[in-house]
TrEMBL record:
Protein's name according to its UniProt entry: Fumarylacetoacetate hydrolase family protein
GO molecular function: acetylpyruvate hydrolase activity; metal ion binding
Pfam families: FAA_hydrolase
InterPro entries, A to Z: Fumarylacetoacetase-like_C (IPR011234), Fumarylacetoacetase_C_sf (IPR036663)
Organism of provenance: Aurantimonas marianensis
Keywords carried by this UniProt record: Hydrolase, Metal-binding
Phylogenetic classification of the source organism: Bacteria, Pseudomonadati, Pseudomonadota, Alphaproteobacteria, Hyphomicrobiales
Length: 227
């Protein structure tokens, strides 16, 4: 049997220092995973279990350009550590979770905040605010075999040279291993799955023409222009 149309190519991310690519299967995002960001969004981080939403694999982009999306006048930046899984499974223990990680990247969870706000108010899913085209600019993937598993280090974002977000990976409420373990109890994880691990405080709006520069110690940098 043959497909009725030519299927789209599987989304993939470049791997630093390699001609190989990391094929993307699914994209999971951890919500409100830094205490200061949870507080700035009006929530008490001490009362929440981890929760997740999804972006689409083809939302990931490495073009260096973020096209300002339609239907929104309030698009926000969220700088995040991106975890790329080389192995998966169900009910993975915290102790075994990091063995599933192929590598790490720097990413942006771009958000149509106004549309997300309406969805929250009406108790609806967040996809219109989170899973739109090119909503996840990402850097190249750095293999864990080269850098290990960073659990601390600066994570920051500048816009037009001005620091907007500034945190540390050790401020995550749910650490990488804990997020993988919890998520594997909800979904069957597999190679190619990507986890965006949440953002520190300081999220805010971007404007057309802005230049966004993100950084995570030990992993790398990401530069994106808002088109």
């Amino acid at each position: 049997m043959s497909p009725v149309f030519t299927p789209a190519a599987m989304p993939a991310l470049p791997v630093r220092g390699s001609t190989e690519t990391f094929p993307v299967r699914r994209v999971y995002c951890v919500g409100r995973n830094y205490a200061d960001h949870a507080i700035e969004m009006g929530h008490d981080p001490n009362k929440e279990e981890p929760f997740f939403f999804q972006k689409n694999p083809d939302n990931l982009t490495t073009s260096g350009t973020f096209p300002y999306p339609g239907k929104s006048n309030d698009v926000h930046h969220e700088i995040e550590l991106v975890v790329c899984l080389g192995k998966g499974g169900e009910d993975i223990s915290v102790e075994d979770a990091l063995s599933c990680v192929y590598g790490y990247a720097v990413g942006l969870d771009m958000t149509r905040r106004d549309l997300q706000g309406v969805a929250k108010k009406l108790g609806r899913p967040w996809e219109v605010g989170k899973a739109f085209e090119e909503s996840a600019p990402v850097s190249e993937v750095v293999p864990a075999s080269e850098i290990g598993h960073p659990d601390s280090g600066a994570i920051w974002l500048k816009i037009n040279g001005e620091t907007r977000q500034n945190g540390d990976l050790n401020q995550m409420i749910w650490k990488v291993a804990e997020s993988i373990s919890y998520l594997s109890g909800l979904f069957r994880l597999a190679p190619g799955d990507v986890i965006m691990t949440g953002t520190p405080a300081g999220v805010g709006a971007v404007q057309r023409g802005d230049v966004l520069e993100g950084h995570i110690d030990g992993i790398g940098d990401l530069k994106v222009t808002v088109a």
